[in-house]
Design goal:
By secondary structure, the chain is mainly alpha-helical. It is about 60% helix and about 0% strand. Helix 2 packs across helix 4, helix 3 packs across helix 4 and helix 4 packs across helix 5.
Length: about 190
């Protein structure tokens, strides 16, 4: 049987607690991690998480502290049922907030549409400009288009020769006027 010796680096301090080894997290991130862990353990053991009224009341108080007062909470002092209920409340609150923000955007757009109908251009024009900048409308976005055409070598040569002939004619007109000095050189365009 072979023995394996691990190469252990010296002078590297180990964390005193498991919490020290974790990356820094916001209160909400820590709550999400704890709630997922509680749910996983509950599923593995086959025991449902059933918060009682006391757990629910404590969770409501914690939610108010977290959301309104921005207090830092030490979650290790609370029961798993309380934390699971709190995580559900926070998740629901976040979804409601997203819906509220969508409602606010709709409200602002409706007010801009209303204001754009104002007979006074001093109020109507800024509203119209703001509407044009709304994501999805994009009336004032600058766009550029690039068209790519594939041509055969023969078509490209023909096009270049036509342009060279036009330039040669322009050069000859310029010579007659004494404007530029151009030498005409015949080039063999046949491929070898």
């Amino acid at each position: 049987m072979s023995t394996y010796m691990l190469d252990i680096e010296k002078d590297i301090a180990l964390p005193v607690t498991a919490a020290e080894a974790l990356p820094s997290m916001s209160q909400q991130e820590e709550l999400e991690v704890r709630a997922r862990t509680i749910k996983l353990i509950s599923d593995l053991q086959g025991k449902p998480i059933e918060p009682d009224e006391t757990d629910k009341n404590v969770a409501r108080e914690l939610a108010e502290k977290m959301l309104k007062h921005k207090e830092n909470i030490d979650f290790s002092n609370y029961r798993n049922e309380t934390l699971a209920y709190l995580a559900g409340m926070i998740s629901t609150y976040d979804q409601m907030l997203v819906n509220d923000l969508a409602d606010y955007k709709l409200y602002v757009i409706n007010k801009l549409v209303e204001q754009s109908a104002n007979p006074d251009p001093k109020y109507a024009l800024p509203a119209i400009k703001a509407l044009g900048e709304v994501d999805g409308v994009d009336a004032f976005k600058k766009r550029s288009e690039v068209t790519f055409q594939q041509k055969s070598v023969e078509e490209v040569e023909k096009s270049l020769l036509e342009k060279l002939n036009k330039l040669e004619k322009l050069a000859q007109i310029g010579l007659k006027r004494g404007a530029i000095d151009v030498k005409t050189v015949n080039v063999d365009t046949r491929t070898h």
